[in-house]
Input
Amino acid sequence: MAMGGRILKQLQEINGQKPYKKPGKPVRLVGVIPYFQKSASWELAQEIQNWFIEHGVSVRLPQAKDLEKAAESPVDQDQDFYHDLDALIVLGGDGTLLRVARQADDLAIPILGVNLGHLGFLTELELPDLYSCLAKLVQGDYQIEERMRLEARIIREGQVRHTARALNDVVVSKGPLARIITLEVYINEQYYSTFSGDGLIIATPTGSTAYSLSAGGPIVSPEVEMILLTPICPHTFYSRPLVLSSAQQITVVLRPRFDDVAVTLDGQQGFRLKAGDKVIVACANSRTKLIKVRERHFFEIVREKIGKTR
Output
């Protein structure tokens, strides 16, 4: 282990934090989830299945009798699909990986993303590296990164109406009309500020390179345990991104002005809000486990994926 890694581990032990990365183990049963809207993804899943079988590893594929029918629900699987899996291999982009992470929530199955999309910031592999890296999976020559998640509760008239979790972010934003919305923000039930603008992004370190970055938020290393609060097009100059402890709780209250406001989680789950509704966000108990088979530092990925010229 490099000196920097030893120092980080020592600091984590002093602060009572769990190590950010953990060693993997040889896999014996894997699940492969293709992106059904691309026929090439399904064909690749079958090729991967054959490769694993040749190397003594059992594979579970979704039952897809009809690709057109499967395309209506490209990722969601019955919970029995995930039972006893050592790893999940996701073929697609970041959106596909986020859906799988939500579907397999609380099961603590390590996920390996293979990029078939455009950016692929969360995915680990590109196609040229696929089979050499799958060999590492069979041998147990990989590490597991644990990424914190957020849990959001929507409170209406004192009752919890919805509870959901997110790996990237929880976003409270306005509808299609060009109107400013007003949000009161409380931290650990203490009033912090009132934001007027297009909305508010509450992000994890993983989500700091997603919507929050586009809204002017900082890039945060996923090794850091924190919650990032980023205003969307704020109407006042003093409204700036705020970094909070992962132990703190954020409450967002929609002021009674317009009802065309929604909360979305990872850009995939959405709930309509009404005036007076509260969105309470805190660090979730569960974590998403991402398989890392290549020796790449986080900031190398930032340079490669975000810093490149398009």
Summary: The helical segments are 3-14, 39-54, 67-71, 94-103, 130-139, 211-214, 298-305. Residues 65-72 have pLDDT under 50 and may be disordered. The first helix runs from residue 3 to 14. The domain at 149-285 is CATH 2.60.200.30 (Tumour Suppressor Smad4).
